[in-house]
Write a structure and sequence with these properties.
The chain has 401 residues and is an alpha/beta fold. The chain is built from twelve helices and 13 strands. The chain starts with a helix and ends in a 10-residue tail after the last strand.
């Protein structure tokens, strides 16, 4: 039986429709891009820091600051309709634990990026792995120079490095405090070694002499010998490159021995714990800093405190370490916003490289380019007076070449 032309045409149209439906059902057209950690409704971010052990006093506030900002953003709808899912691993300030945590976050949890991390040992242990995997690493919390120099495409630092800070502190001590003979008491780790290198690098330019340097272990509690030697060498200025507990111990020992030199220390110690631990021995201490000190009368600090207390369900005042965690959240979220809805890792990197003097609620003057992923290259100076932090000035101190 012959089919009419109309019948044959109808059959062909039906075939085309069927094939079209079949092809569509099999994923015809451009395949949707798969990006680790990203769905239509969420974006997964990993983080690692000490939440237990001797450095938990730093890690826990950092966590609270970061989480508060992320919860604040999520409550407003997230970023381009995606809620941020934050996965935080406890590395106990152990580099082996840090590397294991990062491998879990990247390979099992499939996070989109790492932000932030805490501490030089863990950061240095994970740098090469994250670079090899091309995972964006936003705000490794360390002043070590390795994350920023030489440039790593995936890594974006925020705070100044210890070497540059040591040089700025030395120059300031010479120019403003009349320093002639300097001693450096330093922790036997990257923070101490790089800070010491910075001080030494600026000696000739500052026209000062290094008369004593003494190393101590992170677990040391007796600093009497170091103070005796610095005092005997005639040091009028002592630069401390160590962490809060040891810094406080050194200040108390100096007070005990009646040693009235000028003491300066790294921004790592610009936290209220130094005053709590050292008591009145902290008075006169000059510290580096890279964000203005907390002023309850400043609108920005009020906003930060409001967010911190609301999302941590607390009335406690946030510490300097919580500030750092909060700033990490601000930088990450701004990068995600600029990267757009159709996001991938390269897009986040390019978005971060567009920062020029980015200011958030607390983030201040953050700048990145394709040639520099070091966000802050200046130092603010803070002094302890009558048991409180005071800004020496509002000037940004930069390295004198």
């Amino acid at each position: 039986m012959k089919l009419s032309k109309l019948t044959r045409l109808t059959a062909w149209l039906a075939l085309f429709v069927f094939v079209g439906v079949l092809v569509a059902g099999c994923g015809g057209g451009a395949p949707k891009k798969t990006v680790p950690g990203v769905t239509d409704t969420s974006i997964k971010i990993g983080s690692f820091m000490a939440l237990s052990g001797p450095v938990a006093a730093v890690g826990v506030p950092v966590k609270k600051g970061m989480e508060a900002y992320i919860k604040y953003v999520n409550e407003q709808g997230g970023v381009h309709g995606r809620k941020i899912e934050l996965l935080i691993e406890d590395d106990q300030f152990n580099p082996a634990n840090a590397l294991a945590a990062v491998k879990k976050l990247v390979e099992q949890d499939k996070v989109f990026a790492i932000s932030p991390s805490l501490g030089t040992p863990g950061v240095l242990a994970t740098l090469d792995y994250l670079t090899d995997k091309s995972v964006p690493f936003v705000y490794p919390m360390t002043g070590a120079s390795q994350p920023a120099y030489p440039l790593r495409k995936n890594t974006f630092t925020v705070q100044p490095n210890y070497n540059d800070e040591g040089r700025i502190l030395t120059q300031y001590a010479a120019d403003k405090m009349g320093a002639k003979k300097v001693a450096v008491l330093w922790q036997n780790s990257d923070i101490g070694k790089q800070g010491l290198e910075g001080v030494k690098a600026q000696l000739d330019k500052a026209n000062v002499t290094l008369v004593y340097d003494g190393a101590h272990d992170v677990k040391d509690v007796d600093f009497s010998t170091h103070i005796l030697k610095a005092k005997a060498a005639g040091a009028d200025t002592v630069v401390l490159y160590t962490v809060v507990g040891q810094c406080a111990g050194i200040l108390k020992e100096a007070q005990k021995q009646g040693y009235n030199a000028n003491f300066l220390t790294t921004y790592t110690n610009a936290d209220l714990n130094i005053i709590k631990l050292a008591g009145d021995a902290a008075n006169g201490l000059l510290l580096g800093g890279w964000v203005p000190i907390a002023d309850p009368n400043e609108p920005a600090f009020k906003k930060f405190t409001e967010i911190y207390q609301k999302y941590n369900n607390t009335t406690e005042m946030p510490s300097g370490f919580a500030t750092a965690g909060f700033i990490a959240g601000e930088i990450l979220v701004e990068g995600l916003k600029r990267a757009g809805k159709d996001i991938d890792r390269d897009g986040l990197i390019k978005a971060l490289e567009s920062f020029k003097d980015f200011n958030g609620i607390l983030a201040n003057g953050i700048t990145y380019t394709a040639d520099s992923h070091s966000g802050v290259k200046y130092l603010l100076l803070i002094k302890v007076e009558n048991g409180k932090f005071d800004m020496v000035s509002k000037d940004r101190f930069v390295l004198k070449q």
